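User: Sequence in, structure out. Go.
Assistant: Echoing your sequence, followed by the structure tokens.
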Amino acid sequence: MRISFFLLPALAACAGAAVAATSHNSAAPIDFAADHIELQDKANRAILSGNVSVKQAEMTLTAARMTVSYTGRVVDGSPQVSRLDASGGVTVTRPDQVASASYGVYDINRRVIVMLGGVTLNQGGNKVSGSRLTINLDTGKANIDGSGVSSGTPGTVNTAPGGRVTGRFSVPKRN
């Protein structure tokens, strides 16, 4: 089952909350902080570990570990990042949403974030949980899938038939 968060802004507006699906500036520079970095230039990647925080425009991605893949092209002295793979307590924070999961992939070229394993998305007073979350950063549209994808032992993702999306929508207070 899938739920589209195009519905949530309308539901939240009915509830009196100000929630908007916003687009993201994926061309903005990416700033990072971590306890450790391992550069693997021949493989065109860097491994960030320990309290990793990545910020781009108004979006912040945090995790225990992150692999930063880049194209090998250097523009204005900086490698061109193409993808971020995050694991361990992954959280994506945007002005109108907070999402958390076990794993996350930010495909910068496609401007899409996919999160897997114990996914929770909070938007305003609404909360939805599932197995996989896909966020389109151009449109602000987020889809939660209850496909039965879940994190198992560390470093693995298990798939199972079934699975459901669960959640709670806020309602307006009445006099």
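User: And one key feature?
Assistant: The chain has one domain: 2-168.
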